[in-house]
Design goal:
There is one protein chain. The protein has helices spanning 11-15, 19-28, 43-49, 59-66, 81-89, 102-106, 121-131, and strands at 2-9, 32-39, 71-79, 115-117. It has a four-stranded antiparallel β-sheet. The chain is of the alpha+beta class and 149 residues long. The radius of gyration is 15 Å and the shape is globular. The chain has a single domain, classed as Alpha-Beta Plaits (2-Layer Sandwich), CATH 3.30.70.141. The longest helix is centred in the last third of the chain and has 11 residues, at 121-131. It is 37% helix and 19% strand. It starts with a strand and ends in an 18-residue tail after the last helix.
Amino acid sequence: MIERTFVMLKPDTVVRGLMGEVLSRLEGKGLKIVGMRLSHMSEAQAKALYSAHQGKPFFNDLIKFVRSAPVVVMAVEGESAVSIIRLLIGSTDSKEALPGTVRGDLSCSKTMNIIHASDSLDSAQRELAIFFKESDLVKYSRLDATWVY
């Protein structure tokens, strides 16, 4: 089933010049970027995105981190996009992320872990709404979408 999900390249990705590397991995897997923006996240957006962590000891540091430099927010579509992206990016903790995953190869710590991706379709819907209107997203076909495997 084709799914639409939310992905964010965190400040460490932007300031380390790794945006292209991470985008390449997503696109190379056959995923389609249908919305993308480079911007500084507002405090309200950061708190909404990470609302599930409100009240936890690391919440304020997390908000401060995601607002410390620009981020890239994306709407991504593809077959089983949520689960595929979660496999591609690896474990949240860089010490546990397997080599070959985005975090296993590129992340520095549990906080500076390169990327945020929705963990479910419900989360994706909520997170996409924080950053995009439906009119912000584009429709197009990838050339490989019609290939028979």
